[in-house]
Amino acid sequence: MSYEQALTALADPTRRAVFERLRAGPQPVGELARHLPISRPAVSQHLKVLKDAGLVTDRAEGTRRIYHIDPHGLGALRRWLDQFWETALDAFAAEAERTSDKP
Amino acid sequence: MSYEQALTALADPTRRAVFERLRAGPQPVGELARHLPISRPAVSQHLKVLKDAGLVTDRAEGTRRIYHIDPHGLGALRRWLDQFWETALDAFAAEAERTSDKP
DNA sequence: CTTGTTCGTAAGACATGACTTACGGTAAGC
DNA sequence: GCTTACCGTAAGTCATGTCTTACGAACAAG
């Protein structure tokens, strides 16, 4: 739910691959594991981290669990980034001012 | 420069603290290290990672190096996130549709 | 009730990376 | 020129996290 967790979760390349695969739509764990170079339990562990970060959610469907993207974590990350982006642009403008003309 | 590097760089809490400290404005390495619970070389190493990710830039000023935020890496991250955010909202809407009314 | 899927968790091996101290290099001040 | 301040890099130690195999639980099918 916090942007820190989202950043930590999305840092790992394999976990990011899991997350990006969910972009194609909701999928069960086995389906995800079939297209990834890791074992199914490893996918489950990654999904747990993504779920704790608020990046994915799951629903039960028989014995299978369907995972899909959760906007919450993504939103938290986006808010933090936007807020940072603004001050960064200001600082960049001030820096450009400083290097070009110096009173 | 790529969003993968930016995510990896911002995942570490200490490195994120270094980055967020630069939000207050350009600062030399020693100044950053003074307010952080790690040694100065550690700060240098973190700055190197941030620099490679396009998140910060440095300029020489005497024997000191002033670091400031670089919008490039932040922009790459933002573009990736926005693009993801869109599809996530669509998927979320479709999911809401699915769970509410079922024909 | 038994069998077969699908999945999550536990335990352990292993790699990755973050931090420290030690060292060298560059610029400023006297 | 000599000393001092500031910084980056190298080497080594140590913790964190990712992967595997093994096991048990929940549900559907027969």
Automatic annotation (TrEMBL), chains A, B:
It holds the Pfam family HTH_20. Keywords: DNA-binding, Transcription, Transcription regulation. SMART domains: HTH_ARSR. Residues 1-88 form the HTH arsR-type domain. CDD domains: HTH_ARSR. Transmembrane segments: none annotated. One of its GO terms (molecular function) is DNA binding. NCBIfam families: HTH_metalloreg. This is ArsR family transcriptional regulator. It comes from Nitrospirillum amazonense.
